[in-house]
Amino acid sequence: MSIIQAIIMGIVQGLTEFLPVSSSGHLAIMKHLLGVNTDTGILFDVLLHFATLIAVFAVMYRDIIKLLVDFFGIVRDVCINIGRFFSNLTAIHKKPYIVLASTSYRKFVIMLIISTIPTGILGVLLSKVVESASMALLIPGICLIATGLILFLSDMLKEGRKKPKNANYGDAFVVGVTQGVAVLPGLSRSGTTIAACLLCGFDRKFAVKYSFIMSMPAILGAMILELKDIGGTPLAGSDIAAYIVGMIVAAAVGFFAIRIMLNVVMNRFFKYFAFYCLAVGAISIIAFLVKM
How far is Cα 114 from Cα 60, in angstroms, rounded to an integer? Predict the structure, then answer.
């Protein structure tokens, strides 16, 4: 892979991972256009995913640190509650159980865990489908058109008011399912999950925050799944340099894309991205049909 190819792929990943236009669909299309080697491309995908994790943390580190602290607090309280359960079996004076979702951030943590479960299950079940779908332009094209329609719908939804204290765990499960389905190339993860959050009545700012923070365990899971397919593929020194440059570009572009996305959702600008997805999806389908 050349430095120029890596820079282009890094820009595409940084923008499309967070803007509602599907990173997987665009990366699949760009690999076809640039002729990226699929064997070493797997390792590059892993590194690009890691770069997007860095971008999310850089923008939302305050929330993420609070969530991590509360996550370990919940783990501690679960252990205490388990201990109390067994002691209460024989005790005369029963000890009360600790309420786990005692604050908004703690409820946020539990919602993220619930969302991650269906995402992980669907990610594993659909992994072979995704691999096959990425080999041709037809499926990414169809999914990009679906993304465009979802984005149009999102702009028409009424203003939601739910924040962590008002949202319920059913909402978290539904959003997690949409994130799992969005592994299909061409379906925008950010677009579909934010749309799902809005459909559940989430406040628009919270919808964006929830979508991006929820992406971290999903991206980490995708990295782990891809690592097993890397094998012992040899890398040239030029490839290593290109991969590092691609990561840096993806992280930097992703940082700004996240900030742009908040304005897009708050000002109902999804429709502009919808036009783009519809156009790229149509072009992909036409290109597929022409090559048949």
Answer: 20
What's the structural domain count of the chain?
A: 1
The residue ranking higher by pLDDT, 230 or 173, is 173
- Cβ within 8 Å of residue 173, ≥6 positions away: 114, 115, 117, 118
SS3 234: coil
Measuring CA to CA, how many Å separate 266 from each of 194, 199, 263? 11, 15, 5
Give the whole-angstrom CA distance, residue 21 versus residue 187. 8
Q: Report pLDDT digits (tens) over 47-57.
A: 888 898 899 99
CB 74 within 8 A of CB 36: no
- The answer on pLDDT for 41 being more than 60 is no
User: What is the distance between the alpha carbons of residues 201 and 212, in angstroms, rounded to a whole number?
Assistant: 17
Q: What is the pLDDT of residues 83-94, one digit of tens each?
A: 999 999 888 888
The yes-or-no verdict on residue 232 having pLDDT over 60 is: no
Residue type, 39: D
pLDDT band at 236 (very low <50, low <70, confident <90, very high): low
Residues 6+ apart with CB under 8 A from 97: 81, 84, 85
Q: How confident is the model at residue 249 (pLDDT cuts 50, 70, 90)?
A: very high
Q: How far apart, in whole angstroms, are the C-alpha atoms of residue 91 and residue 169?
A: 33
Residue 80 domain boundaries: 3-291
Strand partners, 162: 202
The CA dihedral of 63, 64, 65, 66, to the nearest 10 degrees, is: 50
Determine the number of helices (DSSP H) and then strands (DSSP E) in the chain. 11, 0
* 97 token code pair: 């159980």
Average pLDDT over residues 111-121: 94
- Residue 141's nearest CA partner among 28, 1, 3 is 28
